[in-house]
Design brief:
The complex is a heterodimer of chains A (283) and B (426). Chain A is built from ten helices and eleven strands. Chain A has 283 residues and is an alpha/beta fold. Chain A has a single domain, classed as P-loop containing nucleotide triphosphate hydrolases (Rossmann fold, 3-Layer(aba) Sandwich). In chain A, the strands form two sheets. Chain A has a seven-stranded mixed beta sheet. A four-stranded antiparallel beta sheet of chain A has the order 3-2-5-6, with no helix packed on it. Chain A starts with 25 loop residues before the first strand and ends in a 5-residue tail after the last helix. Chain B contains 18 helices and three strands. Classes of the chains: A alpha/beta (283), B mainly alpha (426). At the A-B interface, α2, α3 and α6 of A face α14 and α15 of B.
Chain lengths: 283, 426
């Protein structure tokens, strides 16, 4: 079932650790309680292939971390889960991506609905240049989730509470969201994402622009959110992956090398490449 | 390796050269700014120096006797009598009374030449506004002829220019001046009247209203169309050969000489669609064609400068593309779009060449009251006055330039104000 392609010249990562063209992912890719399933997913940017034949499940209410060296395709993979790749010129996704059994790339599927169900938090905090209140209320407003002003107020408060931002901003809900600190902005973005009650939240290196204290707050938050949401997080920090995730997926040059429970990945990785990466021999 | 100079010495040596280059560059910049400012100062000094006189004009005080017999009118509500009345007889009689010694035909003619040909009609307006004056007397300041006005101003300035005056006229003016019966007053006519062959009666109002109507139409048409085109090209259109082709052609269009747009307007709007000539409608359409590329290009630049992270945030929330554009991109790009629009409108305001082609260069006395009244515009009015032989039109021309510049400044200032209000920081 593998339809592999010739790859262009690969950078010599390590002489002894070349990836075989036909190797399957090692570890536990699949889950009985899958929220999202990906089968034989290939992603291309024009002629260039960025993701090769990825098979993996994301279980309900789990936090799965994607790690790997820069340019390994983890962000591309993440963005194929809510079709944010559609906005990239020349990007093409092949294979089968499903959520609760529903084909996300079916022609009749509306991406607006999909993105309401699969929220996203980006690398750089990107609040709208509007008030804190309007930032959080934007999703519920465009999707028509609140019938009255009172409902909307409630959604905004609950979302901000869940994002542990309420206490800090309740006095200045109508000030600009861009006036907050970086960490607060990122939590505002998380509040904005959860305001539409998505089923899955995708996080693309949510802490890479934040200081350690703000990072710790976000990590704490991810743990709390995992009670209600399924979370897929891309991170460059192995410590972060170790702290917040249940399972960890290691990507290398567009291939999914290993998926295993986080503890196992960081203590007894199955694959040599994974071990090389987590022990810092390249990255 | 040559170690006679340490690295530090080398750096120090290059440092003085670099500092010199920077200092030179600073000076070049200052000189450039100074030259630019000087050009502006010279321009303004010249224009204001020449044009300020036009805002005041000479009046002669005369005792007007509204004698029904002299005018040849008994009933002010009879249109036939009004049409046949000799209004100019009123100031003439007053002049005769002021200078009783003037008897010869030639002298009388130069005496009557002191006042404007339109003075009688001004008196008619006074009478119509207050019919009780008929048969009564009144002391009125009467508008002088343009030659008299020019001479009086130059005489006051100490450099009398009497080339077009008779010796008698020069004497009379000196006499009137001594009696305090000639003086300069604010020239309200300049702001309330349309064009005229008589410089003392010519006003800028017609051209001002023409410019206003033409520009209003240009803005109403070109801004929405330009912004819509820019949004479509930037956010919705697929990037392929066709859109590249369109982009190249929009850029070319922006570089087309404006007179070509005039010819296009003549061929399409007037000859094909039979839009009446000389009216703000056709002027606005032609200027819209001219302004559109400017607005499209600057609007696209403004849209491009909206950070992609805002687009991602909106799309990631499940906003449709249309919502993303309407809620986020458009508000953030609006200040830039307005800047582009205002540059385009300023261009359009100063444009005369394309309007010459579509008949907006006509001599129009009536003040246009709408989009379909024959009109001219400020730059064309300036062109017309600059082309007129009467000396009094020199100061009118400069005054019209001042009005045009004020129009421009008001327009730009309001745009800056609007942009400041709309600007959002992130």
């Amino acid at each position: 079932m593998n339809v592999q392609r010739e790859t262009t010249a690969k950078p010599a990562v390590m002489d002894t650790l070349e990836i075989s063209e036909h190797q399957a992912t090692v570890g536990n890719c699949f889950s009985d309680n899958a929220k999202m399933t990906m089968r034989n997913v290939n992603v291309f940017y024009g002629e260039k292939q960025a993701i090769f034949d990825v098979n993996v499940d994301i279980a309900k209410n789990e936090v799965i971390a994607m790690i790997g060296p820069s340019g390994c395709g983890k962000s591309t993979f993440l963005r194929s889960l809510n079709r944010m790749n559609d906005t990239v010129e020349g990007c093409r996704v092949e294979g089968d991506v499903r959520m609760d059994g529903e084909d996300l790339y079916a022609p009749k599927l509306d991406v607006v609905e999909l993105r309401a169900r699969v929220g996203m938090v980006f690398q750089k905090p990107n609040p709208f240049p509007k008030s804190i209140y309007d930032n959080v209320a934007y999703g519920p407003k465009i999707h028509g989730l609140a019938d009255t002003r009172v409902d909307l107020d409630e959604i905004v408060e609950n979302s901000l509470r869940k994002a542990s931002l309420w206490e800090e901003v309740k006095e200045r809900l109508h000030q600009s969201g861009t006036g907050l600190s970086g960490g607060q902005q990122q939590r505002l973005c998380i509040a904005r994402a959860i305001a539409v009650s998505p089923e899955v939240i995708l996080m693309d290196e949510p802490c890479s622009a934040l200081d350690p204290i703000a990072t710790a707050k976000i990590e704490e938050l991810i743990e709390e959110l995992s009670e209600n949401f399924t979370i897929a997080i891309v991170t460059h920090s192995m410590q972060q992956a170790a702290r917040v995730s249940h399972r960890t997926a290691y990507f290398h040059l567009g291939r999914l090398i290993e998926v295993n429970p986080t503890e196992q990945v960081f203590t007894m990785p199955e694959h040599d490449l994974t071990e090389a990466y987590i022990t810092g021999r390249f990255g | 390796m040559n170690n006679s100079m340490t690295n530090l010495e080398k750096i120090r040596k290059s440092l003085s050269r670099r500092n010199r280059a920077e200092g030179l560059f600073r000076w070049a910049g200052r000189v450039a700014i100074f030259l630019g400012l000087m050009a502006v100062v010279v321009l303004f000094v010249d224009i204001i120096g020449k044009g300020h006189g036009a805002f005041r004009i000479a009046y002669i005080e005369l005792d007007i006797d509204y004698d029904p017999e002299k005018i040849g009118i008994e009933n002010l509500s009879d249109p036939q009598q009004l049409a046949g009345a000799d209004w100019q007889a009123l100031p003439k009689a007053a002049l005769n009374k002021q200078f009783p010694g003037v008897t010869s035909r030639g002298d009388k003619r130069s005496l009557y030449g002191l006042i404007s040909n339109g003075a009688g009609y001004d008196l008619k307006d006074r009478l119509m506004a207050n019919p009780l004056l008929l048969g009564d007397q009144e002391r009125v300041w009467i508008l002088t002829d343009d030659d008299i006005d020019t001479y009086y101003k130059s005489w006051l300035a100490g450099e009398p220019y009497a080339a077009r005056l008779t010796d008698k006229q020069v004497e009379w003016i000196a006499e009137l001046h001594e009696q305090g019966k000639i003086r300069l007053q604010f020239n309200a006519n300049f702001f309330t009247r349309g064009d005229s062959r008589e410089p003392e009666q010519a006003g800028i109002r017609g051209a001002l209203m023409g410019s206003l109507f033409t520009l209003a139409l240009t803005l109403i048409l070109s801004f929405p169309v330009g912004v819509a085109a820019a949004i479509y090209l930037e956010e919705f259109a697929p990037k392929n050969g066709w859109t590249d082709f369109i982009e190249v052609n929009i850029n070319n269009l922006a570089a087309v000489p404006s007179i070509i747009f005039g010819l296009l307007g003549l061929a399409i709007f007037i000859n094909f669609f039979h839009v009446p000539r000389s009216v703000p409608i056709v002027g606005g359409l032609v200027l819209t064609l001219m302004t559109l590329p400017t607005i499209i290009i600057s609007s696209r630049a403004a849209i491009k400068s909206v950070p992609p992270s805002i687009r991602e945030a909106a799309l990631g929330m499940g906003a449709s593309k249309y919502q993303m554009v309407l809620h986020h991109v458009l508000p953030l790009a609006m200040p830039g779009m307005l800047t582009g629009a205002i540059i385009g409108m300023a261009q359009a305001l100063g444009e005369s060449a394309p309007l010459l082609m579509i008949g907006m260069v006509a001599f129009i006395v009536d003040i246009p009251g709408g989009f379909s009244d024959p009109a001219t515009v400020l730059p064309v009015q300036i062109f017309l006055w600059a082309d007129s032989p009467e000396r009094a039109f020199i100061e009118k021309t400069s005054a019209a330039i001042m009005v045009l510049l004020s129009f421009l400044i008001v327009m730009n200032a309001s745009a800056v104000w609007l942009r400041k209000r709309l600007e959002r920081r992130w």
